[in-house]
Amino acid sequence: MNLQESIQLSGRCWYRIGGDAKYFAVPKTLDELKELISWGKAEGLPRFLLGHGSNVLFADDGFDGLVIHTKKLKAVRETEEGLLEAEAGVPLQSLVDDANDRGWQGLESFPGIPGTIGGAVWGNAGACGEEIGDRVHQVQLMEAGGPGEWIDAASLCWSYRCSGIEDRVVAAVRLQLSPGSDPQQLKNRSQELKDRKTSTQPYNDPSCGCIFRNPGEISAGELIEKSGLKGTSIGGARISREHANFIVNEGGARSEDIEKLIEQVQRRVRDLFQIELVREVIMPGQRGGSR
Ligand SMILES: Cc1cc2nc3c(=O)[nH]c(=O)nc-3n(C[C@H](O)[C@H](O)[C@H](O)COP(=O)(O)OP(=O)(O)OC[C@H]3O[C@@H](n4cnc5c(N)ncnc54)[C@H](O)[C@@H]3O)c2cc1C
Questions:
Q1: Distance between CA atoms of 291 and 211, rounded to whole angstroms?
Q2: Would you say residue 290 has pLDDT above 80?
């Protein structure tokens, strides 16, 4: 089963923050994934599925349970014209490139999201007003002892940054795309969006992307900017000067620093605008649960 103990999580997420996982495993096959899920359940351990860790803030004292890293579940195949089947650990960017190369329209608006397809589907990742859930045909969900059942996307509860998958495990995904487009046009569109993203976000700094969900018409970034907190720092963490809805790790930030900034922003925005900002970042095993 290739189980490791006391593995530092800071090296496994974009934020570069976090203590040790009690147990850590990197399954190479879906059978190994199933075995790990069953083992964790039998041991009564809290479980956390980790993709690329690009939307995660681990606690300074780590995770007292089993972390399953999907990065080696990377098989992709075309099941029929327009249908791409991908295991959970496939990088979303490589699927965007693959679909664009084939001239299959549908993923060109999702370049530069640094996660896996499993993480993207779990959190219904979005860009340019589009959501990945709209491209999902079926999801293979895995539970202890179960066969890994394929369910139709329509039976999930999709909403803004939410798939309704919650505590279940995404083993693989089938994406429904539309063949027949000009590959170069799709690539140009992706490149344009990626350039826009990297020029308006602190893209190469350690972060989790947007720290808060947008509360409605007005964006969280705009509210934070209006509240005068852009650039504020605590310890090694700073509210980005480039994009106020990013809190970046400038070096040596602790989870606690980020949490304090989150609370400061929530307090200020509540006081000034009577709006409750909800975290988008996932904080495994920490106060407030996954959200
Ligand atoms: C620079 C930057 C830009 C970003 N831009 C965007 C953007 O434009 N749009 C957007 O929506 N997000 C964006 N993000 C956030 C992040 O990239 C996405 O949320 C991404 O989909 C997370 O995927 P991941 O594999 O990294 O998941 P992780 O961060 O590893 O995990 C996120 C959540 O998904 C769950 N999860 C992961 N894999 C599975 C699985 N196989 N089964 C069950 N649950 C699973 C985890 O348990 C966790 O709750 C950005 C982040 C960064 C750092």
A1: 11
A2: no
